[in-house]
């Protein structure tokens, strides 16, 4: 039975989950969430919270991008692990995964929601959060290829779309060379390049306007 991924290609968290599918070469069937029926109704019944991505595997529902990636590691143990088996390394990977979701993607989403009138616009607060995160990441990435441990992991799955959209939302300063090199490496990674290509036809829908030449 196929794994079914409820998704929209432009979604940051969908892209995060897709990176793991492509790293592992696990096939899935995509159900497009563009407001049209019957998928919209099917998804609302399945997962009333309504955030995506969400995955079904037969009768099992898996929500949250991190949990989907965790699930793929458990369900397909012979594919490259996104969360290392070593528990101490796994702590580091999960910690940096939380960093990207909470301190990069969260401010990014607040600014987009502010622009859409869904949240109070509080740009100064979120720009300050970006400044802190960017400076920390630039220091972290000095001499590193990937953000946690030696290999590509869950944390890098989170980082790729987080840094794509963060820069579109609040430009990463050019002087942060380690962070820029990391973003470039993530965007060139074949798994993320594929997710990014799948989103290109929808870029005009990005609420803040997709800048030219920053991908
Ligand atoms: N914590 C969730 C966040 C998912 C999320 O916020 N997805 C956005 C798309 S990137 C969404 O569902 N937006 C639709 C909405 O807010 O109604 C995860 O990690 O998967």
Question: Can I get a quick summary?
Answer:
This protein has helices at 12-24, 39-46, 65-75, 87-115, 123-140, 154-169, 177-188, 190-199; strands spanning 3-7, 29-32, 54-57, 60-63. By secondary structure, the chain is an alpha+beta fold. The N and C termini lie far apart (35 Å).
End-to-end C-alpha gap? 35 Å
- The structure class reads alpha+beta
Each distinct ligand: glutathione
Got a strand count? 4
- Put simply, the count of helices is 8
Largest sheet: 4 strands, mixed
- Strand arrangement, major sheet: 2-1-3-4
Shape: globular
Q: Which band does the percent of strand residues land in?
A: 5-15%
> What order do the helices and strands follow?
EHEHEEHHHHHH
Helix content: 40-55%
Radius of gyration: 17 Å
Mean pLDDT: 96
Contiguous uncertain segments of 5+ residues: none
Query: Quaternary state, please?
Result: single chain
Features:
4-stranded mixed beta sheet, 8% strand, binds glutathione
Tell me what you see in this structure.
It is a single chain. The chain is α+β, with helices and mostly antiparallel strands and 215 residues long. 54% of the residues lie in helices and 8% in strands. It contains 8 helices and 4 strands, in the order E-H-E-H-E-E-H-H-H-H-H-H. The protein has a 4-stranded mixed beta sheet, with helices on both faces. Helix 1 packs antiparallel against helix 6, helix 1 (12-24) crosses helix 8 (190-199) and helix 5 packs across helix 7 (177-188). The longest helix has 29 residues, at 87-115. The chain is globular, with a radius of gyration of 17 Å. It starts with a strand and ends in a 16-residue tail after the last helix. The model has no long low-confidence stretch (mean pLDDT 96). The structure holds glutathione. Glutathione is lined by residues 11-13, 50-52, 64-66.
